[in-house]
Amino acid sequence: MNLKERGITVGDLLIILIIIITSTILIKSLGKEKKTTLNYINQEELPYKKDFYQKFI
């Protein structure tokens, strides 16, 4: 049957809700992974620059 003929059912609403929740969780988890990667890179660069400048002093 068509969606026009039967209308929106509870099953349709559940599927839409599951898709929305899954996509928001994936987007948030990917955002956190990028932030931790950037923080790790920054933490690694700081000691290197500090040692580099101390050699000249």
TrEMBL record:
The superkingdom listed in its UniProt entry is Bacteria
The name under which this protein is listed is: Uncharacterized protein
Q: Does the keyword Membrane apply?
A: yes
Keyword annotations: Membrane, Transmembrane, Transmembrane helix
Q: Which residues cross the membrane?
A: 6-27
